[in-house]
Specification:
The chain has about 220 residues and is of the alpha+beta class. It contains 5 helices and 10 strands. It has helices at about 20-30, 95-100, 110-120, 160-175, 185-219, and strands at about 15, 35-40, 55-60, 65-70, 80-85, 90, 100-105, 130-135, 135-140, 150-155. Strand 9 and strand 10 form a beta hairpin.
């Protein structure tokens, strides 16, 4: 697979609907301290049945923004008892599946992470979990709309070897999900096969380079 040019520069904004703009502003601006940086008052936009709405943005650092839509006169949609303003799920949908869709916001260090924990714990939206996993430490809560929000800090840099491992893992995953009844065992088996294949290619390239070096020294 050829390498594609990588010219994007992060997130411009992520947008969600809200039925509680007042609570949303209180959570993000007044508790977390994210400034409101832009808003759009849209009257008469779209087709005839499109409600008027306001689209408002919070600064979450690094020129990235978190945005919300509030539609005037639109009532929350009925659905299951779990979920958020965007999606309501039935009782039998696993909570881990629902929480897999979330927003993670990065901070530089443990001191900053604990400061945001202090702000949340003193609010109506206290931290629900604080977890260290692999290379990061994170705190989690739900905002007034039911969206899971993660604030995370890096505990160490990710190494080039881990980047290579990630690519091998994803290539193996793509192969495995193309098979009937994909499983973790099948993924790990395919990954091991890819490591062996890569090692053989690396050895061939290493031997060829060593041969070229010998020739160069002999000149």
């Amino acid at each position: 697979m050829s390498e594609l040019d990588h010219t994007v520069r992060g997130v411009d904004h992520v947008a969600y609907p809200t039925f509680d703009p007042a609570g949303t502003v209180r959570f993000y601006r007044d508790v977390l301290g994210f400034p409101v940086v832009h808003s759009i008052c849209a009257a008469g936009w779209g087709p005839d049945n499109h409600p008027d709405f306001i689209h408002f943005f919070f600064d979450i650092g690094n020129d990235d923004r978190l945005a919300f839509f509030y539609y005037f006169g639109l009532e929350p949609f009925e659905g299951g008892p779990q979920g958020d303003s965007y999606s309501r799920f039935a009782e039998d949908v696993p909570i881990f599946f629902i929480r897999s869709r979330h927003l993670a916001i990065h901070v530089d260090n443990e001191e900053d992470l604990l400061e945001y924990r202090r702000r949340l714990d003193g609010s109506d939206w206290p931290v629900e979990m604080q977890i260290q996993h692999e290379t990061i430490e994170s705190i989690y809560t739900h905002d007034p709309n039911g969206y899971m929000i993660e604030i995370t800090r890096s505990m160490r840099a990710v190494t080039p070897q881990e980047d290579l491992d990630a690519n091998l893992t994803i290539d193996a995953l793509i192969d495995e999900v193309a098979q009937p009844n994909p499983s973790m065992a099948g993924l790990l088996t395919r990954k091991a096969e890819k490591i062996v294949e890569r090692a053989a290619r690396w050895q061939e390239e290493h031997d060829a380079q060593a041969a070229r070096d010998v020739v160069e020294v002999g000149r």
